Amino acid sequence: MHRLWLTFAQAVTIAVAVVFVLSTFKPDWLRPQAPVVVVQNEAPAAATLGAATDSPGSYAKAARTALPSVVHIFTSKEMQSQRSPFLDDPIFRHFFGDRLGPRQEQRTSGLGSGVIASADGYILTNNHVIEAADAIEVALNDGRKFEAKLVGRDPETDLAVLRIEAGGALPAVSFAPTESLSVGDVVLAIGNPFGVGQTVTMGIVSALQRSHLGISTFENFIQTDAAINPGNSGGALVNSDGALVGINAAIYSRSGGSLGIGFAIPVTFAKDVMDQIIRTGRVTRGWIGVEIQDITPELAESFNLPDTEGALIAGVMRGGPADKGGIQPGDVLIGIGTHPIASPQRMLELVAALAPGADARFTVRRKKKVIELPVKIGRRPTIPRPQ
């Protein structure tokens, strides 16, 4: 009996020792294992990653469609560095001569965005992005970089066209149908704000046909609250299908950042300018040589006008088309052909749309009479490129 008890005690001691060792060094061996159940997933793996389906309310498809067409634009130009005004002082130079050396040259850089408008490498951007630059580099969404050539520019709409030779077809943006945009539509702004990289912001169309902003000569802007910041200039404003509706151009800001008021050039304006630049290297517009101004209630009263409609002719260039046609300072232009003139901006747009050399009939109110005058349209002078 004693021997049996001794054997039992030894066995218990060994078992406790084994449990202690296992619990210390291999605790997983002592935990119960859940049964393994293999389930076959019949859904494609791509759907799990969100590539096949988008969540409700998502604009991922529109972003995927437009992103490859938006590029980053890097510019540089050479300029003389600033030096102390003392170096130009005769007395200073008498004592020190030219020992401080000539004015040093340095390069400044800028950044912006652009939109691939055709598969053969034409790119739309803002004129102020590339203005006065002597070197332009374009970086595609896939990381490739190319030197760009300036095809032409139009300062009066703040648009420019570049071209790159990529050795193959490029992902061109699709243009939204004319007049397809309405206030309240969702839009995405795509660009390279502050140089941080490709960025998509979302908002709505806040207003259409914004003018009198002092941004450019011909203004018909889309206003949006999609965040647009420095570096977004020249980038794309697209609709919920990823089609281009505008070229981001400017923001209203007191700090330099977005305040929810951004402006884009409508795609119809941009495409017309681009087509003309590609075809002829410049934009040709009609011109009659007058200075115009808005008719305020005070002016209407002083000129005995029935309303404030029309454009007041404040000055006429001697020998210009308007002067030859008989238009005089003080006339109120109220119609061109069959089109009524409600404002100076409308008059500017209608005249610009006329072909140089064409004959047009201008309806003016002179004192208390309404008369028609024939005017042969001239060519609007081009603004020379800054040197």
TrEMBL record:
Keywords: Hydrolase, Protease, Repeat, Serine protease, Signal
Pfam families, per the entry: PDZ_2 (PF13180), Trypsin_2 (PF13365)
UniProt binding sites for substrate: H128, D158, G231, N232, S233
Entry superkingdom: Bacteria
Family annotation (CDD domains): cpPDZ1_DegP-like (cd10839)
GO biological process, one term: proteolysis
GO molecular function, one term: serine-type endopeptidase activity
Domain (PDZ) ranges: 277-341
Active site: H128 (charge relay system), D158 (charge relay system), S233 (charge relay system)
Signal recorded as keyword: yes
Family per similarity comment: Belongs to the peptidase S1C family.
The protein's name: Do family serine endopeptidase
